[in-house]
Fold:
Amino acid sequence: MVKKITLIYGDGIGPEVTKQSVRVLDAIAETFNHEFIYERALLGAEAIDATGEALPQQTIDSALSADAVLFGAVGHPKYDNDPNAKVRPEQGILSIRKALQLYANVRPVKAYSNLAHLSPLKPKLLEKVDFIIYRELTGGIYFGEKETATDNSWAKDTCIYTRTEIERITHLAYKAAMTRKGKLTLVDKANVLDSSRLWRKAVQEIAAAYPDVKTDFLFVDNAAMQLILNPSQFDVILTENMFGDILSDEGSVLSGSIGLLPSASIGDKAALFEPIHGSYPQAAGQDIANPIGSILSAALMLDHFGLHTEADVVREAVDWTLINGFVTKDIDPVNFYFTSTVGDLISDYVSGKIPGGVNRTNIEYRKSTII
Ligand code: IPM
Ligand code: MG
Structure:
């Protein structure tokens, strides 16, 4: 299979984690006889520095002609404390979502039993946690009409949803529920917001077409609480843009490190894959960031190409590193391995260079020696 991939490193730790994914993808290509052709493109602060724009047209063109986009991270501290900045790195990711019509953001959350100690929740609560968030990504308050008074005495953002925007992601979420535990939870604020009441109506109607899926409804404030009190009750969580943004960061805590979690942003014609973590500027360039969120995003991209066996091999390799303690500093601050070492091990595993039995002493020499 030949696939063209637009590669966007982005800001902060984006380049170093994405490079590990490329190595893993190259190992997959070699082992399974595929060809992945990469085209580099710019987005975020790196794009502003080079072109003055957060999303140059060349990046949109590249993404539109590619089979998928693999993206690193966006954000730079020099813009964070400057509310007057004319152009912000984050506009790059928001604009590409809109330009490619990536309306469904899919974020799987899973708790690893051997990492339970990293989560602030009691291990008992983490048993069987395995859910997936379907977050609407191109509508709602993120993209509604905005305005700020010239004298800064008021500002407004509008939350607007069309029925079509709700329906298309709802069908995707139901289809996912049918292949999983058969439960879908719509998270909204239908006791207060008109837009949420429209979501509820639309989802109630669509539910009839999926009789094998049990549908339930939670207000977002209660959902935020349930995610901590009883996270294993969830299977597919369907929600609008901003609630999904907030709940997915909350959900990431369950897995032990936000560095582990991947995401896929899907439209009818395009797809973009990115870890859910941000640009983590404090760690940039130090080879200490966790590459697994990016590598698992690459696995979701392989799934998107229909290469499920290949995707499973990547996930198996990731599980192998986690189970054997070949982990980055976010997971083990004392005995940690570098970003590039974890990338090496995962690509070596994929290439079959690491046989069933692990010879730990052969791997130890690749460990951090400069702590
Ligand atoms: C995310 C991020 C983005 C969002 C930011 C960087 C604009 O938090 O992908 O969750 O709010 O969607
Ligand atoms: Mg977010």
About this structure: The chain has a mean pLDDT of 94. Residues 74, 90, 93-94, 245 surround 3-isopropylmalic acid (ligand 1) (CB under 6 Å). The chain has 14 helices and twelve strands.
